[in-house]
Amino acid sequence: MKKNKIIFWLATGIIALFEGVMPALTSQTEMAKEGIKHLGYPEYFGNALVIFKILGVLALIIPVVPKRLKEWAYAGFVFNLIFATISHVVVDGATGQSFFPLIILGILLLSYVYYNKLNAQNS
Fold this sequence. Notes:
Radius of gyration: 15 Å
Order of helices and strands: HHHHH
Largest sheet: none
Number of helices: 5
Mean pLDDT: 94
Number of strands: 0
Structural class: mainly alpha
């Protein structure tokens, strides 16, 4: 059980950094605004995305959040990361950087698998 907790918190911590902390700290920089614009999205979309990312990360890391809400947060991140990959491939072509969101998706899936393992052990 200890191994499962370590893997869960390590993976979830990485997700929290990449999907919550970094966007919160950098979303108002010119580079971030230009990145959203480069992909063809309006600036308000980037702002809304950051708010939902922060809320999603909070849902994942706060233990008392209901399981159903955590499931929705995981689903939201899956959609976000898949569509981020699609957006980058369509705009920039199939470069290595275009597929970076899929690496984060893999870490998210690891978090999800171990979240469910921990819940099965506690049931």
